[in-house]
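Bug #77: duplicate submission created two jobs. Keeping one. Sequence:
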Amino acid sequence: MQYQERVGAAQAAGMPRDGERAAAAGLNDANINPATGLATDYLNHFNEAIMLLDLLASCPDCRDDFLDDFLAWRPLSYRAHFEASRFQGRALAVAAYDAADPAIRGRLDTLADAMTAVLEAARAALLADQAPEAIGAVAARATDFLKPLVARAGVVINGEIDTSRRDAPQAIIDGLMRR
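Kept job's structure:
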C-alpha cells in the first residue's frame, strides 16, 4: 500500500486530519515507521526471549531462575502482540500494519515465523531434562540463529536496505540519489 493509505489508516485510528505531515509525525511519535507502517516494538516480543536465552547460555547454573520464564514465552502475531501490550499507540500500530504494503508485511511475518520456529525448537530441546552445559549450548545456538533474524526484521520495519543482498551496494546508491 502507498504512504497515503497508511496516512488514512492513521487518521482513522485517531490521528489528526490536518495533513500528511501531522499523520507522519503521529506515526513517528508512536515509533511507527511512516514509510513502512511497522513498529519496532514488535521485536521486543522476540528480544525478551533472546535475552533469557542469552542468560541461560552465559549462566547455565541459573537454569531455575530463567528457564521457566523462557518456557512461558508464547508466539504472538504482530496484531496479537499489540492488542495484548500496554504500548500507547497500539491501536495506531495495528491500523498502520493493516494498511502496510502486503509485501513488506509478508517479509516481516515470514521473519517472525522463522524466529518463532527457532524459539519453539529451543523450547522443545530445553524441556528435556538436560545438564547445565547442554542447556547453555542449546540457548547459545538458538541465539546465534535469532539475532540475525531480529536484525533483518529491523531492516524490514525501518525500510532500510538489506545489506546481505547481492544488489545492496547499488540499492544503497540508488536510495542516496533519490534523496
